Each structure stands twice: as C-alpha cells, then as structure tokens.
C-alpha cells in the first residue's frame, strides 16, 4: 500500500507545480490590465475674453422740460410718469387770465391805431390835392408873367402857396408813417401776448418717455426751481456701468456685450456706445454706456449686470477639472500611446468652469478630463473619449460641459 501511494504522489507533482505557477501569474496579469480613463480631445477654438460689469439702466438722453413763462400758476397737469409723449404734445397748462386781459386791451388799441392810420391817410390825400392845385397855378403864373398878364406880386403869392402845400404834404406823409408804425407796434404787442398764451401750455420738446413729474397744480413757475418734467428722449434706455482702470483701457466703442436684467429670462445683447474720455481720479474708474438691443418695458434705475466681449483669440479650451494647480504651477495629464504623461501648461482666462490653455497642449491631443491625484506618469491607461460641446464664439466656454460617458471610469 505504501509503495502505491508513494508512486501516485510522485506522479502528481508536475500537476501541482503547474497549478502553483498559474496562481503566481494571475496577479501579474491583473496588474498589467489597462484601466479606462475619460479624456477629451483638445481643439483650437475662438476664445472671447469677457470683462464683467455691474451697473444700472438709465435714459440715453434726459430732457428737462421747464416753463417759458415765469411767475404763473400751474392750472392743469395733462400727463403722468411712465407715459409716452409725442413731440409738441401738451404736458401742463399755466394760468392765462392776465394775458387774455392784455389781449382784449390790445384789440381796442388795434382799432384805435387803424382809425388813426385812416385819418392820417385822408389828411395825406387832402395835402396831395392841395399841392397839385398850387403847383398848376404856379406853373400858369410863371407862363403868363413874361407876357405881363401876371404881376410879380401875384407870382410870389402863388410860389408861397405851393411851398406851404409841399410842407403840409410832407407833414401828412410823416404823420401817416408814424400812425402806421404805432399800428405795427400794437400788432407786435399782440403777437407777444399770443405767444405768451401759447407758451402757457407746456409742451414736450421731443418725443419720449416721461420719467419724472415735479409739476403740481397751484404751484408758481420759477426759473430756479426743478424742471417740471424729465423725459427720456425717444424712450431709449441703456446700460450704464463703472469699469475699473485695468479693464477700462481695453475697451472701445462697438464691442458687443451681454446684460442680465431683472424680469427678463434671457440675457439682452448690446453694443458699447460710449466710454468716458477720462477716469475718475478718486475711484480710478470710468463710465461706459451700452446701447441695448430692442427690448420692451425697460425701467431706468433697475440694477443689472453683464459682461463685455473685450478680445477674441484662438486657443485651446479645456474643462477646469482637467487642469491641476499646485504651488502656482498648472499641469494636465496627456494620454499618448495609451500612456499617461504630465504636461505643464500656461493658462489664460477662466470662466464658468472652463480654462483657456495658452501653451503646453496642442490641437488633437487627448487630455484626462479629471486631473486625479492618483494618476501617475508613465502609467498605462485605456482612454475613453467624450465629446465636448463647442462654445459659442462670443463666449468664453460658458456653455462648455463635460458629459459623463456610460461605463467609463473617471480618474
């Protein structure tokens, strides 16, 4: 029995050795298995750097409406704040009692002036007839005097009569001219009174939106008081903000902007219309005005925030999770030939979870989506590529998202 058992054991040794060698090889194979990691393919894209701005809405141009007539009481108010008015539309009415009394007196003065002109005109007609008669008599006497039919004394009398007629004719003409001048003065006075009455109705100098009303019924108009009405010309409302010095010097007219307004679900586009010619020496900031695209219902004074597209360039955009920062140095994991490598990079603008890569990564390279701390250089991995949504050209990766791949291991 012992001989048989010994021989069987000797025959089973090779089999057990093979089994032991297989178990020894299993861990080594497992350690060489390539783990999947999620990567994104770096692509050149248009990067628009945005300068954030905070401000409020304001009228593009404010028109102060003041009365032409001072010292008159306000009788009627015809418009209210928030109402759109047209050019020349009546806004308020002043008391015109005194002006209308003067207008009635002027009507009487005009009648008197017309009568005076008529009297002086008739006197001029009489003087003209007298001058014509005396002239004819004088001419007849001059013709007969050489023949001895008219004495020298009679000729002198006719000469004197004609001279008096000429003088009376000149005086009649001057009197008529004076009467006509008086009539013109009275007519001009009437025009002034009518203008006063017309100006007693306060009208809108331009079409627009009534922003403020200080006019009150019973108040007396004064040149030193606040304007009766404040109107936003043409109802145009724009965004006004203060920008710091470092950002202000990079702005110029025509740049596009995106403004977020209260009560509007989507941002409103706009164009930088005007920036200040100088900075405030105290705050070191300058004012910028952004003309908004057509939007209804904008109210001056409403707080708003947004961003101005300052500069556009072409660089690599990566999700922020792909960039690792340690000690002020930035790096990413790049997968090439199934092997992980650490690459130092220079970053640019950051916004909304995305980072601009200025250099260190080229177009087409695969970058690990999440720069995990347990990844090591020269480690073999199985890259699983996910697609990035390309951001719009006028945004700095604001819409960039990193979708989660199905069945991939995030490392």
Structure description:
With 411 residues, the chain is α+β, with helices and mostly antiparallel strands. It folds into four domains: 35-47 and 313-386, conserved putative lor/sdh protein from methanococcus maripaludis s2 fold; 53-59 and 237-311, Elongation Factor Tu (Ef-tu), domain 3 (Beta Barrel); 65-95 and 201-231, OB fold (Dihydrolipoamide Acetyltransferase, E2P) (Beta Barrel), CATH 2.40.50; 97-199. The protein has helices at 2-31, 97-144, 152-199, 245-248; strands spanning 35-41, 44-59, 62-65, 74-77, 84-85, 90-94, 201-203, 208-213, 229-233, 237-244, 256-261, 268-275, 285-292, 303-319, 324-326, 329-336, 339-351, 354-359, 366-368, 381-386. The strands form three sheets. Strands 2-10-13-12-11-14 form a six-stranded antiparallel beta barrel. It has a four-stranded antiparallel β-sheet with strand order 3-9-8-5, with no helix packed on it. The chain is rod-shaped.
């Amino acid at each position: 029995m012992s001989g048989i058992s010994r021989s069987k054991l000797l025959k089973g040794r090779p089999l057990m050795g093979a089994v032991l060698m297989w178990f020894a090889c299993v861990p080594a194979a497992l350690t060489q298995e390539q783990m999947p990691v999620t990567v994104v393919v770096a692509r050149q894209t248009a990067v628009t750097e945005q300068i954030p701005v905070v401000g409020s809405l304001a009228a593009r141009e404010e028109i102060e409406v003041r009365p032409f007539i001072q010292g008159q009481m306000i009788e009627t108010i015809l418009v209210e704040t928030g109402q759109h008015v047209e050019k020349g539309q009546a806004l308020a009415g002043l008391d015109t009692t005194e002006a209308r009394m003067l207008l009635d007196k002027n009507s009487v003065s005009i009648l008197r002036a017309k009568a005076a002109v008529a009297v002086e005109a008739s006197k001029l007609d009489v003087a003209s007839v007298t001058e014509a008669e005396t002239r004819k008599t004088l001419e007849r006497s001059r013709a007969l005097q050489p023949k001895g039919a008219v004495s020298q004394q009679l000729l002198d009398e006719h000469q004197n009569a004609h001279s008096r007629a000429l003088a009376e004719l000149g005086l009649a003409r001057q009197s008529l001219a004076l009467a006509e001048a008086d009539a013109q003065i009275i007519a001009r006075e009437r025009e002034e009174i009518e203008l006063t009455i017309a100006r007693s109705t306060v009208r809108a100098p331009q079409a627009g939106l009534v922003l403020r009303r200080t006019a009150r019924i019973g108040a007396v108009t004064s040149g030193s008081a606040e304007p009766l009405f404040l109107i936003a010309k043409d109802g145009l409302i724009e965004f006004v903000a203060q920008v710091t010095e470092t950002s202000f010097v990079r702005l110029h007219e025509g740049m596009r902007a995106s403004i977020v307004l209260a009560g509007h679900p989507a941002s409103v586009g706009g164009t930088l219309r005007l920036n200040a010619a100088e900075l405030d020496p105290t705050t070191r900031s300058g004012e910028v005005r952004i003309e908004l695209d057509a939007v209804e219902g904008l109210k001056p004074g409403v707080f708003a925030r947004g961003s101005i597209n300052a500069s556009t360039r072409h660089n690599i955009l990566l999700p922020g999770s792909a960039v690792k920062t340690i000690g002020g140095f930035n790096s990413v994991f790049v997968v090439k030939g199934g092997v992980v490598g650490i690459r130092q990079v220079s970053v640019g603008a950051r916004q909304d979870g995305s980072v601009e890569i200025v250099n260190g990564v080229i177009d087409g390279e695969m970058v690990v989506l999440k720069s995990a701390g347990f990844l090591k250089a020269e480690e073999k991995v199985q890259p699983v590529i996910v697609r990035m949504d390309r951001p719009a050209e006028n945004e700095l990766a604001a819409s960039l998202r990193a979708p989660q791949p199905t069945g991939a291991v995030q490392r």
